[in-house]
Amino acid sequence: MTKEKILQNHDANNSGKKSRRDFLASGIASLAGSSLLAEQIANGATVAGGPTIGIPKQNPKSAEVSPQGYPGSSKKGTGVLRGLMADAGRVPENPSYYRRAIDFCREWGMNTYLISLADDQGCAFRFKSHPELITHRNALTHEQALELAEYARQRGVELIPEIESFGHTRFITGVPQYAHLQDAMQGGRGNFSAVSPAAPETLKLFSDLYREVAEIFPSRYFHGGCDEVNWGGSEVSREALKKKTRDEIWAEYVNSLDEITRKLGKELIVWGDFVLHKQPGVLPRLNKDIIVMDWQYYVTDPSPLEQAARKVIDTGLRAIGAPSIISCRWGLRAGANALRNIDAFADAYSRIESPSALGVIVTNWVPSRYIQGSMWDSFAYTGVALNEGSVAARASAFRRFVEKHYQTEWNENWSDIFSTLYEITPNRESCSPRWMRPVLPIPWKSDDELKAAATSGMLNAPPFRRLLSQLVFSEAQVRDNFDDFLTFRLSVEYMEHVFWRVSVLVEEAARANRTPESSAALTRTIAERDQRLLAKLDASWNKGRASDAEAKTQTVFDLQPGDQLLYTFHQAASFSQQLASDPERFAQLLNA
């Protein structure tokens, strides 16, 4: 099938849209199924107020829209590359989502879309040269990848492929015939183990993979990964380390990947966590045509980010900044610190006049952490920040999003929704799977988790309930992208529900006059609300992702409960159903 024929078969412009009449009908129907919202509507909901600690309320004033359709004028920006990243290697999305994200990039002044095609969990691309590699059920075929690459090219968006080539390579070492290439160092984290850089077979394998991907994706850039590496444990690597230092072996390996890339007419990008920060002796040994992509997800000050970029440039290489919207510390939604991380990178790279500062690409990890289509507002904020800087983004990004994406008037209600939502969204203090508290947006789903939640003392949950009410009252104003609005609202509904599940446990456990009847009624209420929300989450997943995707149906390697929102909530809903059929057990758990 030709590229032109493939594109003719795709209707890209109607994705995510619904008629206003259908939208209002579905909105009213969904409200009828929610006893909580029905009660709020009956009693009247508060639609004003809320904290604005770090997200200033944005002026209810119309945004100026450029002739190109981008809201606001783009000045210097952050460099040549401005864009987003998709983590297909962990959880592939349907191709239609990637096309829509490419359209969104173009609409919001971004010209780059980085797509990770392989990670520990598997390949999101079906390699013909090595079909034996661990591959996702719904991985892109050659035809689908060709279509996506051509779609991006026609829209002026640089679609950059990434293949993890050092760490995060269980898609290779998890295959029995390549198990001997695993290079984990004793005591290191196994999922970050590497393929052995000293084994000749490793480079031959990546030469095949690089060539196959390069033939499909026309981008001048090729991302080779190489972050979070735990290596040096295999016999071949131990022997190599007797003759050379870790810095030398590392640099020689990455330079060899670069040589493969250059022969294909591409320029290699590698992550900077080791070569720039943890093992800086590698940096001066790298070939000067290599690009270092510096990810630092918890930094909100532009100064150290600018210093890191200048260090790369002063060494003779080029730099790309990489903040994150969703990383391991964030769950369903990003909070204020994620926006501040984007701001810091945007401001840092806009200060650097050198053409070796290529720009900023905002990463977005593990799609099963969030509801597809619920974060267009964060992506819009990214577009404004990368083009115009943090001051413009803080002042007007969400206003522009509401006016452009929803085609409705910005007002104090919308301002309060966005300023409050980003401030109250919780994050993990650590990415360690051992760090768990009931206040996380992860539902309790076992006896131990229920007891921990009941004794957490959390009576006053963040005001997600108020925000949900405000969104209900705002929906009649939305004139475009109605499905996106519903999905955005669903993400807030999920947060409200998970915190509600904890607060009602705390309240019930503390009741002096608690009776078996009251406990039984509560278990039924929790189970009923769980089932209603589960149905919505399941329908949302099936609309934009494969219904049999691994991350939906089973525990996935190295993904924690907070990384698999739907799968985890399915477990929680099943658990609450069990308790509803055995209220005596529920009472015993509360007493414990």
Query: What's the pLDDT, averaged over the residues?
Result: 87
Structural class estimated from helices and strands: alpha/beta
What would you give as the CATH superfamily of the largest domain? Answer: Glycosidases
- Count of helix runs: 22
Could you name the CATH class of the largest domain? Alpha Beta
Please tell me the total number of domains: 2
| Number of beta strands | 12
Classify the helix fraction into a percent range.
40-55%
**Share of β-strand residues:** 5-15%
Uncertain stretches = 1-53, 61-75
Question: Architecture of the largest domain, according to CATH?
Answer: Alpha-Beta Barrel
Gap from first CA to last CA? 64 Å
Overall shape: globular
What profile does the largest beta sheet have?
9 strands, parallel
What's the CATH topology label of the largest domain?
Answer: TIM Barrel
Oligomer: single chain
Calculate Rg over CA atoms: 25 Å
Write the layout of secondary structure elements.
Layout: H1 3-8, H2 20-32, H3 35-43, E1 81-86, H4 95-107, E2 112-116, E3 118-119, E4 122-125, E5 135-140, H5 142-154, E6 158-162, H6 170-173, H7 200-214, E7 221-223, H8 235-241, H9 246-263, E8 267-271, H10 273-278, E9 291-295, H11 302-314, E10 318-322, E11 324-326, H12 336-350, E12 357-364, H13 376-388, H14 390-405, H15 412-424, H16 447-454, H17 464-474, H18 482-510, H19 516-544, H20 550-553, H21 565-581, H22 583-591
Parallel strand pairs: 1-2, 1-12, 2-6, 4-5, 7-8, 8-9, 9-10, 10-12, 11-12
Antiparallel strand pairs: 3-4
Helix pairs in contact: 4-5, 7-9, 11-12, 12-13, 13-14, 15-17, 17-18, 18-19, 19-21, 19-22
